[in-house]
Amino acid sequence: MDEFFPEPYLFAGTPFAINRIIMARLIAVAVLAIICILYAKRAKLVPGRAQAALEYILDFIRKSIGYEVIGEEKAARYLPALATLFLGVFFMNITGIVPGLHIASTSLVGMPIIYALFAYVMFIAAGIRTHGVGGYFKSQLMPAGVPWPIYILMTPIEFLSNFIVRPATLVIRLLANMVVGHLLLVLTFAATHALYFSVGGLGGALGGTVTLLGGVAVVVFEILVAGLQAYVFALLAAVYLALSIEEH
Predict the structure, then answer these.
(1) For 96-125, how does the pLDDT look when each residue is reduced to its tens digit (9 = 90+)?
(2) Rounded CA gap, 46 and 49, in Å?
(3) pLDDT tens digit string along 184-213?
(4) Among 21, 31, 93, 231, whose CB has the most other CB atoms within 10 angstroms?
(5) Which helix (H) or strand (E) holds 168?
(6) What is the pTM for the complete model shown?
(7) Which CA distances in Å does 244 have to 116, 126, 150, 214?
(8) Which residues contact 110 (CB under 8 A, 6 or more apart)?
(9) What is the DSSP letter of 142?
């Protein structure tokens, strides 16, 4: 339990208490902000490696998420928000393998909720901007072509699906994946420590080596998961946005 609710080591007993998870979040935000500021100030016509890497990521977000899901004509307005979601979730996820932090900033429910609320407000605001308040909620709660008596059953279902289940799925999917990843890291490296230093002998050395290699594999896997979950989160946000602004 202490893994997910560590004791604060700065400003303890105040609303500004900082523990390991909060520090991981602050570091993730600071690093992402520095990268974006340096990119904005030092961008060149012929990019270096770092600039090319960041531009590749932004281009991936634009084409593989924005254009593919929303459409090239409509996506431009929403690309900054989608890039914020993708990069924000990725940097919060990747802290799980950073030495000294060792926990994903999204493995506690608060951060996934914040990102889900950001996406929630984004797709509702986009729908209202496109259809107006009445038109948007009518399109989401009362699909066209359905006999009126059916709306008595369908409208509550549509409300749950569109306004409760959508943000909930964003939160649960991200949280569950990062919690599981952290637990795997804890188990493999705790087992390695126990086998090497508590069991000892040839059996402990062999077992510790196996769990150590397993831990390294989990680290590599966690890097992939960090990127994949950022992609899935931004992709689902784009899908929900596209459903809000599509013509009915």
Answers:
(1) 998 888 889 999 899 999 999 999 999 999
(2) 10
(3) 988 998 898 888 888 877 788 888 899 999
(4) 93
(5) helix 166-194
(6) 0.91
(7) 16, 7, 22, 44
(8) none
(9) S
